[in-house]
Amino acid sequence: MQSDNVIEVKDLKKKFKVYYDKGNSLKEKILFKSRNKYEERWVLNGISFNVKKGEAIGLIGHNGCGKSTTLKLLNRIIYPTSGEIKMKGRVSSLIELGAGFHPDMSGRENIYINASIFGLTKKEIDERIDDIIEFSELEEFMDNPVRTYSSGMYMRLAFAVAINVDADILLIDEILAVGDANFQAKCFNKLREIKGKGVTIVIVSHSLGQVEQICDRTIWIDKGLIREEGQPRKVHPLYMDYMSDTTLNSHQKKEEEEEKTTESEEVQNENVVEENSPRDIGNFDIKITDVQLIDVKTRKPATKFHIEDQMELQVCYMRKNKNIKKCEFGFHIFRSDGLDYYGTNTLIDKVNSVELKDTGKISVVFGAIYLLQGEYKIDIAFHNDLGLTYNHRYNAVEFEIKNYYDEVGIARVTHEWIFNEKEK
Amino acid sequence: MMQVLEELFNYREMIFSLVRRDLRGRYKGSVLGFLWTFINPLLQLAVYTVVFSFIMRAGIEKFYLFLFVALVPWLFFGTCLSGGASCIWAQQDMVKKIYFPREVLPLSFTISQFINMLLSFLVIFVVLVFSGVGINLVALLYLPLIMFIEFILALGTVFIVSALTVYFRDFEYILGIIQMAWMYLTPVLYSMDLIPEEYRSIFKLNPMTPIIIAYRDILYYKQIPHLETLLQASILGIIVLIIGFYIFGKLKRNFAEEL
């Protein structure tokens, strides 16, 4: 095992026996031999990857692709048919929350039961109990039986225990849908904090946004094989493309066939182009026609700015489907190495939706940019309030920030200096 | 083997928690609560006293005591045999979703039943003193030893039945019958003298036979059990534990898939 790897997976294969009609009792096993027919289904066909210490990886893929199986194998709940998994350190999982909870016992007692199932000793739980209670925000309910809790409180308590188990490797399966928005944000911050401490994280999720926020690397599993692996920002557009292609195929085959010749050429061209150039996905009811950045002072298009310059993002669009009257618009700024800098949209900012015309222009005016030296990219998207994407353009526009000062970090935080002010 | 033991040690708090949850959770919601642990054996004793002192006279002095000191240990083993079968099955949500050494479940089940038996023994002692039989303190020193041997036997048995029940659900129900038959084949209701000479060697293959004899020697006859009896009990107990541990270790890998 290489020294900086904490997880090494080599040629992992797993098959399940899928019974057509499983007889679990002796009578059924003997009498209905024919019912015990089963089919062998290969869920994993040989995947290999390594994870370094402190790295966070996301496993994505459509339902049944084998990502949850991979996580279960890592967690040693099931064992591989062939292949090898090596792991270093204590493994904890956020897969089943609230295991072993007894409804009649108090919150505090249940913390002890639940935490002990994760392999903590009494002393270790004693050390953590205050953190757990504080994190769960259930101080005043601690001595009430858990059956009196609401389901939200129950999950909060369970999550608080699970996330306070100090593991070296944390396995997470689609669980960040816990509690209200506040609590979710708290869970995310906690995960970042844990990651900052050098804990290795493996997440299985359908929410690409969540993966993008936490993970350094995405592994896209398809039909039991690794299809693509790399920075989330590079893999996710490919995955989205693939997913929308498969849905298009099933729903709009007829329409597709008419345009087939032209479209397929386009698609192929798109796959060939370099990763950093713009890529469009969506149903194109609204189409982005032009994107540019303007220097507010000179009113001219620009791609290089100084840290204190003002910048304006201009997006021209064309409406193809006249039934759509309104839509939402968002942008997302990244540094060229993939660091997620800032993103928002008209929904989050609670401004009015975009009133659409057949063709039109949207401008976003940034005050002082306050990004430090580097190269940046902006993704933009038109979508509706339910998340249906009309046109999402990755790497829509690039710009560079020059900075004459020696500040460090990723962005300037506005501040002022006060010296020796007399106390009143 | 050593790896499993080390892991079990690391998960000791889980074992304690599960035992505590089982003991405390068992009578939650009932009015008398934990008192049932004592009331239950007392009521049983009352029934046996009435039946065997007035209705069926067995010809053994203080037959209800003769029976009771053997019945309590038997009930511990019998519960492990039939109830222990479902201890993995009943926790399938946990087994399917979380990693922990699977041995924790049978171990904590057996411990919790064992503690229950110890509490029943408090009743036995009280009855022994009040019935005038009394207690031989020297013989009593052997009681922890025979209890420990029975614990080993019961643990091995729970390993076997709980692992097999995951694969064959019927096993749990078959065990109900096996438990009943096993009780009648063990000198719980009668003494060894009743068994014809030619069958006695077969009876001695039953690991519960020497254990029950030893309990009865210590508590009813107030004498130190024969070395031969103790040796026989320990050897049989250890063999069952090793077999159980081995079978469980083989079968546990596929628990999550079979459940």
UniProtKB/TrEMBL annotation, chain A:
Gene Ontology molecular function terms on file: ABC-type transporter activity; ATP binding; ATP hydrolysis activity
Signal peptide: none
Residue ranges constituting the ABC transporter domain according to the UniProt record: 26-248
UniProt family annotation: Belongs to the ABC transporter superfamily.
Bias type Acidic residues, positions: 256-268
Transmembrane segments: none
Keyword ATP-binding set for record: yes
Protein name per the record: ABC transporter ATP-binding protein
Location of the region described as Disordered in the Swiss-Prot/TrEMBL record: 247-274
Gene3D superfamilies: abc- transporter (atp binding component) like domain, P-loop containing nucleotide triphosphate hydrolases
InterPro entries for the chain: AAA+_ATPase (IPR003593), ABC_transporter-like_ATP-bd (IPR003439), ABC_transpr_TagH-like (IPR015860), Bact_Polysacc_Export_ATP-bd (IPR050683), P-loop_NTPase (IPR027417), Wzt_C (IPR029439)
Keywords: ATP-binding, Nucleotide-binding, Transport
Annotated organism of origin: Velocimicrobium porci
PANTHER family, per the entry: TEICHOIC ACIDS EXPORT ATP-BINDING PROTEIN TAGH
Keyword Nucleotidyltransferase attached: no
One term under GO cellular component: membrane
Domain of life: Bacteria
